[in-house]
């Protein structure tokens, strides 16, 4: 039986949302006149528009449900994903990497690899990114249908097809611009639709201090129990958090994943592009007020038998993802239920649109135009972008049906980011900051990093080696193994890239101007007052991050 | 074209309005659902916040045109 029942007003609110996103797609269609409009939203967005879209592209409903459930399971340690696991990387992207990305006028991250290194490195990254994006998109679609079926009792096929067709329509009509518009609407719907859960939970329990007083100490701390993995729910040491999550996984995702970086490329000038991840960092730091607080509230209520609150169980196993839906069912009357469900639906669909708009760009520019049809005109590329959007959705739906027939594939998806993004960060870091790194060094380093990460995953999965060989600890969770595997993949890519570069031919320096530090003019912005400087807001963001970590130490 | 903030304002006013109307209807008929803290009528004041924020977005962006 479903956990949440819907009334007429809830259905009307959901219908209003679908009508809005389709209407926006139709409205924006008339402003999408050329390929730059379709793939890069015309490069005319303000830093606020690009910044909120940058954050929202990452803010899927699965993350909201999963992280709230993980907080129930692991406690405050989940906040590391929002703070040390995101903010330093976002600030690094805005302050140090964006000048190279934006000034080179590239249209995608693989496009940078082409300019800095060569065609084969670009195509290797483009193909791996395209496969990863479609797999993630399909699995998300499957997961969305599963969540809607479990919590609302909706028909699996109908909910999947309705959202896939809607996303296909508005992204095909106006590309990245409509994806960005719906992402920003999603941002507001998530805050208005889900923050109230935390507010009502705090009111019911009697305040934030009371919540922390009622949970075990290991669940209420961020760092003080990280020296010994047996003392925290996540079974990870501070080394795994800092090196694996805080450095490699976080920097690998936030600075190189085209899904998010594409939003910054749509900014109207370099200063706006640099401000994009910095503005997003403030809202990223605030998200724990929804997910972490929601998980802790669910934990407190579940430990109190008189509350009558419990998570759903599937076949005797606790379904941690049910924490947020069960809180919605507990606190929300008709109308608000529709808003909460719309917030989750918007998260699913905006995430889907983000994946598809990133895929159609990488496919069109970095695979089709680069390998298959080098002489394609601008009009043809625009047409190909629309075809790629529909093809991407069809492949995603196929992947979703594949996942339905083989649910264990979900286990593999948890690790996919450490296969593709972690080594790519080493390639990007060396490429942007070391001028003697060669095209062959980058290619073989990237291939070694991706191959080793995938190999380590298989070796642990099929028990060819023990997990402790990777995590350097006798006690470790799957999440800890993900952190450490990312670190080793990064290190292998870093080492192989340097080693091969020592013995292979370098690119002439004149071809690297604007792409590498030391060969690029240091004055990157026009003079602006202090309050408009990215460095100033980056410093403020960093200070808040430090204060939060000290407060919850 | 109209900026995104205009559409944000529209969606908040539309959804906030619907939630407010249904909340008032249930309150008037005394037929409201017995959720936890239902006595605080969160649907009424929260939808009020949504409408106010939505109206602010609409007013600020009413004459704005993005090239």
What does this structure look like?
The complex is a heterodimer of chains A (553) and B (67). Chain A has helices at residues 8-29, 35-40, 47-58, 61-74, 87-103, 109-116, 119-152, 156-205, 208-213, 217-220, 238-256, 258-265, 270-286, 291-303, 323-331, 336-372, 378-405, 409-413, 416-433, 439-461, 468-471, 478-503, 534-551, and strands spanning 313-314, 317-318. Chain A has 553 residues and is an all-alpha fold. Chain A has a domain at 8-232 and 259-407: Sodium/glucose cotransporter, CATH 1.20.1730. A two-stranded antiparallel ribbon of chain A has the order 1-2. In chain A, a hairpin with a 2-residue loop joins β1 (313-314) and β2. The longest helix of chain A is centred in the first third of the chain and has 50 residues, at 156-205. The radius of gyration of chain A is 23 Å and the shape is globular. The mean pLDDT of chain A is 88. By secondary structure, chain B is mainly α. Chain B has one domain (4-61). Chain B has helices at 4-29, 42-61. In chain B, α1 runs antiparallel to α2 (42-61). The chains are: A mainly alpha (553), B mainly alpha (67). At the A-B interface, α1, α8 and α16 of A face α1 and α2 of B.
């Amino acid at each position: 039986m479903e956990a949440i029942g819907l009334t007429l007003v809830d259905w009307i609110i959901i219908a209003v949302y679908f009508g809005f996103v389709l209407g926006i797609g139709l409205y924006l269609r008339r402003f999408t006149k050329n390929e730059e409009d379709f793939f890069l939203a015309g490069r005319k967005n303000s830093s606020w528009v690009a910044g909120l879209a940058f954050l929202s592209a990452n803010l899927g409903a699965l993350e909201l449900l999963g992280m709230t459930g993980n907080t129930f399971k692991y406690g405050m340690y989940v906040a590391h994903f929002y703070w040390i696991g995101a903010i330093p990387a976002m600030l690094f992207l805005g302050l140090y990497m964006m000048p190279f990305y934006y000034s080179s006028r590239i249209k995608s991250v693989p496009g940078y690899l082409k300019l800095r290194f060569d065609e084969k490195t670009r195509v290797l990254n483009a193909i791996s990114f395209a496969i990863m994006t479609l797999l993630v998109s399909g699995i998300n679609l499957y997961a969305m249908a599963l969540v809607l079926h479990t919590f609302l009792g909706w028909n699996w096929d109908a909910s999947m097809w309705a959202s896939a067709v809607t996303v296909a329509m508005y992204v095909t009509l106006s590309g990245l611009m409509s994806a960005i518009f719906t992402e920003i609407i999603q941002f507001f719907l998530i805050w208005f639709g889900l923050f109230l859960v935390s507010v009502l939970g705090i009111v019911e329990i009697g305040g934030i201090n009371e919540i922390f007083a009622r949970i075990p100490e290991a669940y209420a701390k961020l760092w003080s129990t990280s020296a010994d993995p047996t003392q925290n729910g996540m079974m990870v040491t501070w080394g795994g958090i800092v090196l694996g999550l805080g450095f490699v996984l976080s920097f690998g995702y936030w600075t190189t994943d085209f899904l998010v970086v594409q939003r910054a490329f749509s900014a109207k000038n370099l200063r706006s592009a640099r401000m994009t991840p910095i503005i997003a960092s403030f809202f990223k730091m605030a998200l724990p007020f929804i997910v972490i607080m929601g998980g802790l509230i669910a934990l407190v209520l579940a430990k109190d038998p008189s509350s009558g609150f419990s998570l759903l169980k599937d076949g005797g196993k606790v379904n941690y993802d049910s924490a947020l839906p069960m809180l919605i069912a507990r606190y929300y009357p008709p109308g608000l239920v529709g808003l909460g469900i719309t917030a989750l639906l918007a998260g699913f669909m905006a995430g889907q649109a983000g994946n598809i708009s990133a895929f159609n760009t990488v496919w069109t520019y970095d695979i089709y135009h680069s390998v298959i049809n080098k002489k394609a005109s601008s009009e043809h590329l625009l047409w190909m972008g629309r075809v790629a959007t529909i093809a991407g959705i069809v492949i995603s739906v196929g992947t979703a049906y594949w996942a339905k027939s083989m649910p264990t594939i979900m286990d593999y998806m948890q690790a996919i980011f450490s296969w593709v993004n972690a080594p790519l960060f080493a390639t990007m870091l060396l490429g942007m900051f070391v001028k003697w790194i060669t095209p062959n060094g980058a290619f073989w380093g990237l291939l070694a990093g991706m191959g080793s990460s995938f190999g380590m995953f298989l070796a642990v999965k099929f028990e060819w080696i023990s997990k402790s060989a990777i995590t350097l600890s006798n006690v470790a969770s799957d999440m800890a193994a993900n952190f450490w595997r990312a670190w080793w993949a990064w290190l292998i890519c870093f080492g192989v890239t340097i080693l091969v570069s020592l013995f292979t031919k370098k690119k002439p320096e004149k071809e690297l101007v604007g792409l590498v530090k030391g060969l690029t003019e240091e004055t990157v912005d026009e003079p602006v007052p202090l309050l408009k400087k990215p460095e100033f807001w980056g410093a403020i963001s960093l200070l808040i991050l430090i204060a939060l970590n000290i407060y919850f130490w | 074209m109209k900026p995104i903030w205009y559409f944000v304002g529209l969606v908040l006013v539309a959804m906030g309005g619907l939630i407010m109307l249904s909340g008032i209807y249930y309150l008037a008929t005394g037929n409201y659902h017995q959720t936890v803290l239902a006595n605080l009528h969160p649907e009424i004041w929260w939808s009020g916040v949504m409408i106010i924020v939505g109206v602010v977005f609409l007013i600020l962006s009413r004459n704005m045109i993005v090239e």
